[in-house]
Amino acid sequence: MKQGIHPDYRDVCFVDLSNGFKFVTRSCVQTKETTKLDDGRDVPLFKLETSSESHPFYTGTQKSVDSLGGRVEKFRNKFARVGIKK
User: Fold this and answer.
1) Cβ pair 31, 11 in contact under 8 A
2) 18 lies in which domain range?
3) For a disulfide at 62, which of 29, 56, 75, 85, Cβ 3.0-4.6 Å?
4) Would you call 83 helix, strand, or coil by DSSP?
5) What is the tens place of the pLDDT at every residue in 50-83?
């Protein structure tokens, strides 16, 4: 490999701000903060708004749009009175 052209690929700690869930994986993301892990290593820290631990799709709390009625039904209900002439 050529020297100096590749990004810094290293262990990074990602933390979910909504519930405090942390996980360590390898990444090239640039960070300004670091954190100390349980094993004593200092690793870069990247803060996430959501992760698989808090996202509704992965946690099963997602609402299905189909159960609320289809798009055609919503349109018909919304504009049912628009075309009626007296």
Assistant:
1) no
2) 10-78
3) 56
4) coil
5) 777 776 665 666 665 555 567 777 788 888 877 6
